[in-house]
Amino acid sequence: MRWKTFVIREDEYPDVTHKYNHDTFAIKDGGTWLTIDHVLNMNCRIISIGEIILTSDDLSNLLDAWMAGELPKLEHFAARVEDLDLFTVFKDVECKRMDDNVNFTIRNGPYLIEREFDGRNAIVFGTTSIEILVLQEQLI
């Protein structure tokens, strides 16, 4: 199932994300009503949200949840976020700079993180949007 070409309004589909257990959740525009609780209750491989009102603290909670093994199917998360601060996003997560990347900047990344319990790696980067790419192979 792919939702990308129309706007979902909260009053029209109040429980849609709490029941969402499909491969891809994508909203191009109109995702401003989604909260971090909606995102944490999704069980999707790909989550792509064009506009969302999440804070850097919310994104830190998302990373903390992934690090704890929640969102087990997640492979790719992308969202446009206002005032993104990766330092706040990483406040509880140990990350490594990917210095060999020619596009690396301290403010925007990319950074590599690793879940302790299973060794899965993810790359996190962002400027006005954030992307989390869960890798199939272990890099650390």
Automatic annotation (TrEMBL):
Entry-linked InterPro entries: F-box_Sdz-33
Top-level lineage group: Eukaryota
Pfam families named among the record's database cross-references: FBA_2
Residue ranges of domain Sdz-33 F-box in the record: 21-77
Name of the protein this chain belongs to: F-box domain-containing protein
Source organism per UniProt: Caenorhabditis tropicalis
